[in-house]
Amino acid sequence: MITADRGNAPEVRIEENAFHRGEAIALDAAPHESGGILVGWWEGDGIAVVRGLLAVPDHRAGHTHYERRHTPAQQVLDEYLATSSEPNVGYVGEWHSHPTPQPPSPTDRHALTGLVRQARHSVALVVLAVMSEHAVEAYSLIGEPCWPSRATIKPADVERIAP
């Protein structure tokens, strides 16, 4: 499904199966945060298509924090890519849950800025906020590099799409 006219607004399109997997992880982890990495591809200018939300456990996660550690995340990504038959699929960003109905925090924005500076390419962030025992809402930001070593963080529309 393609949105007819989105202007220049960044967008994150999450496949339904990926969204439901992330939703289940977020609900199961509550009242703690959980998270991991986003796999998919970039389409056009500022559109991230998310094929999978891969969990990267953080045994120290709490009510208000989750830290995605590089080594376990790289291992999860490598395992996923080794079994994927799609040549264009790769790392597009990060995701984590908020066990309360909260959008991305200033800490999330700061972390995304650091990821963009390190990666030197666009990075998507999806926050799955637990709204109730059975409902999760997705918020998203896209960080883009800008010269010389800064990042621009923009809110992004979230669209759920069929696989």
Number of strands: 7
User: CATH topology, anyone?
Assistant: Cytidine Deaminase, domain 2
What percent of residues are in strands? 35-45%
Unreliable sequence segments: 1-6
Separate helix tally: 3
Strand arrangement within the widest β-sheet reads 1-3-2-4-5-6-7
Query: Biggest sheet: strands, sense, closure?
Result: 7 strands, mixed, barrel
CATH class membership = Alpha Beta
CATH homologous superfamily grouping: Cytidine Deaminase, domain 2
Structural class determined from secondary elements: alpha/beta
Structure report:
The protein has 163 residues and is an alpha/beta fold. It has a single domain, classed as 3-Layer(aba) Sandwich (Cytidine Deaminase, domain 2), CATH 3.40.140. It is built from 3 helices and 7 strands; from the N terminus they run E-H-E-E-H-E-H-E-E-E. The chain has a 7-stranded mixed β-barrel with strand order 1-3-2-4-5-6-7. Strand 6 (136-146) and strand 7 form a beta hairpin. The longest helix is centred in the N-terminal third of the chain and has 14 residues, at 16-29. It starts with 10 loop residues before the first strand and ends with a strand.
Give the SSE layout.
Layout: E1 11-15, H1 16-29, E2 35-43, E3 47-55, H2 70-83, E4 90-98, H3 106-119, E5 123-130, E6 136-146, E7 150-161
Parallel strand pairs: 1-3, 1-7, 4-5
Antiparallel strand pairs: 2-3, 2-4, 5-6, 6-7
Index terms:
26% helix, Cytidine Deaminase, domain 2, JAB_dom_prok, metalloprotease, hydrolase, metal ion binding, globular, 7 strands, metal-binding
